[in-house]
Design goal:
This protein has four helices and no strands. The protein is mainly alpha-helical and about 120 residues long.
Length: about 120
C-alpha cells in the first residue's frame, strides 16, 4: 500500500513540475493543481494508512488512524481551491490585457520597437 501511495505522489509531483514549466498559463494552472494533489496525498499518507480503522479513538478500539493528517488535508483542499481561483483570475487578466496567454511574452507597452527608436532618432536630429 505504501509503495502505491509513494508512486502516486511521485507521479503527481513529476507531472505537476512538468506542467508548471510550460509556457502557457493553462498548463501552469493544471501543474499547480497537480502539485497540490501530490501534497494532499502525501499528507494523507503520513497518517498511517490503515483500512477500516476509525479516525477517532473510542473505547474498545486498539488500532485507529491519526485524525491530524485528515484535518490538514481538508484545510489544504480549501486553500488550494482559493489559490487556484486567484491564479485563474490573474491568468485571465493577463490574457485580456495582452491577447495572448504566453508566460514569457513581453508587454507591448513596456518594450520599445524599432519604429519608436527611429522616431526618437529623427526627433533628436
Amino acid at each position: 500500500m505504501e509503495l502505491l501511495v509513494a508512486t502516486a505522489v511521485g507521479m503527481l509531483t513529476a507531472s505537476g513540475i512538468y506542467m508548471v514549466l510550460r509556457l502557457r498559463t493553462f498548463p501552469v494552472i493544471i501543474g499547480i493543481s497537480l502539485l497540490t494533489y501530490a501534497v494532499n496525498v502525501f499528507l494523507f499518507g503520513s497518517g498511517r494508512l490503515l483500512p477500516n480503522a476509525p479516525a477517532v479513538l473510542t473505547d474498545g478500539v486498539d488500532i485507529y488512524s491519526d485524525p491530524l493528517p485528515q484535518a490538514l488535508v481538508l484545510t489544504a483542499i480549501v486553500i488550494s481551491f482559493g489559490m487556484t481561483a486567484v491564479v485563474v483570475i490573474v491568468a485571465l487578466g493577463s490574457w485580456l490585457a495582452n491577447d495572448d496567454d504566453m508566460v514569457d511574452t513581453p508587454n507591448a507597452d513596456t518594450e520599445p520597437d524599432a519604429a519608436d527608436d527611429q522616431a526618437r532618432a529623427g526627433a533628436q536630429s
